[in-house]
Amino acid sequence: MEYYFEPNPIEVFSYIIPLYLKVRIYTCFLESSFSEQFARRVAMKNATDASTEMIRDLTILTTGRGRQRSRMRLPRSSVVLCFEVNYYVHMIDNKIRRVYHER
């Protein structure tokens, strides 16, 4: 019993092997691109979480100072410091948001 291949095996493999290699290379590029985008997303999420936590901590600090001022008389410089810290916190928050939205 004899088998015949149509088209012959050399033609089939000469078509399939380059196609297979092209698909494998394209898959590598896709995985690399996905990995980079995912790493950027994780980095931005971590930065956002850290800045949110920092703002929350500084806000608690400034509101705590405001409550202390109402309970006891603090020098005017402490009140000014409280507002300056709050101002810089909002400046940092706005800058982080601008950088995040530019990407």
Tell me what you see in this structure.
It contains two helices and no strands. The protein has 103 residues and is mainly alpha-helical. It has one domain. Helix 1 packs antiparallel against helix 2. The longest helix is centred in the middle third of the chain and has 63 residues. The model has no long low-confidence stretch (mean pLDDT 76).
- What's the domain count? 1
State Rg: 31 Å
Instruction: Report the strand count.
Output: 0
Residue share in helices? over 70%
Silhouette: rod-shaped
Count the helices. How many?
2
Please state the average pLDDT score. 76
Derived from helix and strand composition plus strand pairing, the structural class reads mainly alpha
The SSE order reads: HH
As residue ranges, the low-confidence spans are none
Biggest pleated-sheet summary: none
Strand content: under 5%
End-to-end CA span: 67 Å
